[in-house]
Amino acid sequence: MFSYLIYDQIMSLNILAQHLSGINDIRQSGKTLYPLFDILFLAVTAVIAGCAGWEEIEDFGEARIVFLLMTPLLV
């Protein structure tokens, strides 16, 4: 049962990542520090985890930097 739970979580992350990677980034490339996917993924996962503001989202990202860096491998 445990392996199914992990599989379901990975599949859910893959689906979320596929949706977010399909969003066009209309920002000026010279004025961006982070890829749009990274910002959106961090914001969505932080809000799902219960974060309620940009400072909490930042703290969430800093606490889970290793996981967030591995995320593009899921797409």
How would you describe this protein?
The protein is an all-alpha fold. It has a domain of 41 residues. It is 65% helix and 0% strand. α1 packs across α2 and α2 crosses α3. It is globular and about 35 Å long.
Oligomer: single chain
> How many distinct beta strands?
0
Radius of gyration: 13 Å
Estimated helix fraction: 55-70%
Class computed from helices, strands and strand pairing? mainly alpha
List its salient traits.
75 residues; mainly alpha; 0% strand; globular
Topology:
Layout: H1 2-21, H2 36-48, H3 54-63, H4 65-70
Helix pairs in contact: 1-2, 2-3
Give a summary of the structure in a few sentences:
The chain has helices spanning 2-21, 36-48, 54-63, 65-70. By secondary structure, it is mainly alpha-helical. α1 packs across α2 (36-48) and α2 (36-48) packs across α3 (54-63).
